Amino acid sequence: MDRFDRIFELNRILQAARHPVSRQRLQEALECSRATVTRLIEDMRLYLNAPIVYDRDHNGYTYDLADGAMYELPGLWFNASELHALLTVQQLLTSVEPGLLDPHLKPLQKRIGDLLELQRPGFDGLSARVRIMQVGARRGGRHFQAVAGALARHQRLWIRYFNRGDDRHSDREVSPQRLTYYRDNWYLDAWCHLREGLRTFALDAIEAARPLSTTALSVADEDLDRHFAVSYGIFAGTPRQTAVLRFSAERARWVAKEQWHRDQSGQFLEDGRYELRIPYSNALELTMDVLRYGPDVEVVEPTVLRDLVRERLAAALARYG
Predict the structure, then answer these.
(1) Which domain holds residue 38?
(2) Are 62 and 25 a contacting pair, CB within 8 Å?
(3) In a domain, 138, yes or no
(4) Is 296 helix (H, G, I), strand (E, B) or coil?
């Protein structure tokens, strides 16, 4: 029985006992020494706020509770793997937008660290040994908090937006729906009142932002999922076509394990190549991903995507004469 199990068992014994429980009985039930029982009781008092008291008249331990009351272990109580995952998430949030959530995360991080050390001594400080490396990340911009605040308060937002695709600026009124962290960058999914439709805005391209007093238009979750989550990548919309990609036998060892889209399907071919089928609506991002694999991938269908990839490869080759 390890420390974690002993705490649960100690709590169960004290809850079920009608009279104070002696230290000797706790030693036998928990299969440990007198010193270990003492440490467990002190840990529960210190870290879990357990109202354990020693009753001298009965020479035993009990919970000091009002009539009818019952002590329960805190809700924030996880197994070791769950605690490790929380520490990893904390590091991800900090690296994504440093300082944004520090006032809220630091007390939670300390609490998690205390529980982790209590349950599995020696594992404290795991977050310092976990690395999350970002490539091509763009900071959320100086208006991150204004956007997040409007989203939390269900307010409309005025923004000045720079569209890098056509090199134009525009002023828009939007109703924030979701913040999305995708491929190391932040995006705002919102209802655009200028275009009268759902749009995605890169936060680093928002040059000015001001919350408005008007209540934001709410879009149902199922409609957001239908628009933003069904198709390929961040460029959402109803899938209009399905891409058929064939990867070389060597590259197949990696691609077969990758999740490109929630509705993708794939199979190994007789010659060892891997065929991947992906629904998509906008060819831009998909083309960029295909180009990453160079000669290790072939676009089989549709013809329009195959031609687009061929044109981009030819243009790239032309750069080198």
Answers:
(1) 3-63
(2) no
(3) no
(4) helix
